[in-house]
Hints:
Largest sheet: 5 strands, mixed
Strand order of the largest sheet: 1-17-18-16-15
Shape: elongated
Radius of gyration: 25 Å
Amino acid sequence: MATTMLVAATAVAGEPHWFPVQAPAAGVVRTVLEGEYPEPNRAYAMLVQSVAGLAAQAVNEHRGDELVWVSTTNRDLEDWYARILRRPGAPAARAEALDPWTLVDRFRKAGIVHGYVLYRADASKGEINEHRPGLDNSVNVATSLAGVLGGVLVEEALEPEARRRGLERLADARDRTLSWCFETYRDRFNRRLLVCQDPRKPNVRDLAIAQKCFTAYGPDSSVEAAMKWMEPLSGVIGWNGGDEFETTRLSTVHGQFQTATDWCMNLPVLMAGSSASPSPGVEPFDPSSIDWKDDRGAVSFVMTDGDNVQWYEGGFFGGPSYWSSPARGKIAFGWSCPFAHLAQLGPVLIDRAREQRGPNDSFLEWGGGYYYPDLFARDRPDRWGLLAEHARRTTQLMQRTGTRLIGFNVSDIDSPDAIRSYQAIAGASRGLAAILAFEYNPYEGGAGRVWWVRDADGVEIPVISTRYSIWEHYPAGRSGGTPAKVARLIRESDAAAAAAKEAPRLDWVIVHAWSYFRHAPGSDESAEEMPQDEGPSRGVRGYVPATWCAERLPESIRVIAPEELAWRIRMRHDPAATRKAIQAFRH
Length: 587
């Protein structure tokens, strides 16, 4: 196992949070289900999102005392709502479920809705989140203006009813550009949060309006202008679509981070009061529980996409592929997670993970947002100081949430800037067991190499690159593919170490969250491959394919928690220092 020693970076001061605060409310009202909205359905979804945003803004400014929960058929989201109402100091549920116009009338009478901003619905063709020709961004201009003018979002077809109800037109966004909007109102927008959202999605407009955010989408010059204008170390809510690497690189180089929240719902309600009463975290892994007499080779499995806040709000806990898999607990497994985000955006989601966690479930923080550390703040002065500050905030939140491992996606895993980013992150951190690093493409580009860095207390911790990836239809010649192929590669690597009289391998496997496979217990490794568009009806993804890989490993290779993997690598490297660190951990 190759190792390299690095020098530490210095931490800088600041507060361990990055999202704007949402104040708690005395009450909450909820809408009827979207299926009960009149036509055009999406226009009404935009309308209720804007009322929810103005209500949350009024609570923040002490002009109102009610939040709005936008009802959904998503059982997980409704579970979060029920949990919120059971928490100490919870808002009181008020009124029956309200239809869109009754909701508007309620908050107009309270002096919170001042009028409306008119927009034109985007009618261009193409997939959601695609940068497509003919994109109409007027709803994003309207969303930006709604927060600063106090108006609800009204699509052209709804304007006659808005006028009949006595609402005043505050602005017409239909022929206004994003650049005009940004340049005209930039002094009134929030510099700590940017919203990027496909014009066809109503989601997260409540948060955008509540926090008076500039809202944009696409390869528009205003998006980069806003990235430059924002205060560094700020989040990008939603998703700007297009190529994933380029979208994330754009925010990264300006010292911001993505949150994968474009399908999120009800964030103002979920985050209300989180700064004053954070949830307790999960119980951290205790390294004193490790059986050091067992020195067999070992491998850990870690799920991808833990930066994805909307996944944890919706699909992660529900359905059979991930947390609710009937097989969960069969093997030790690392669930990558956005707990540092959730501590601010939705602490009740951490509550559920803590309550339902089994002895084989591990959680590790996925970066404190989606960004590439080796490119972070490249276009800002003091880029390494900014990276260190974000790492310091993140690891302080990790202390609160109970996670001691952090994973990062880097653009070039062993470049000089990547090496320096590991130094900066470690030097700003305390209490980390290790850093897990993987390359954007290919994930297993680090080939299991380990670098050594010192944390803020001078303690050496490893930066461990992934060696294998379970991912459908992987290119030949690379260390990834079906569960059967990855199992063979692990067996061969262990056998090669034994033949060379080297210590048994200690590696981790990254498991692509979205790859479907079919169960094929024979020796044909390609038999597990399947067309991905057939996956929902015929395939399995997520947790279970990792168990298929584990079943193919011999007794000489154990499957262990990623935290145990980290501590075993540390013990091999420096037994005396590791024993001292374990003793300190227990106290």
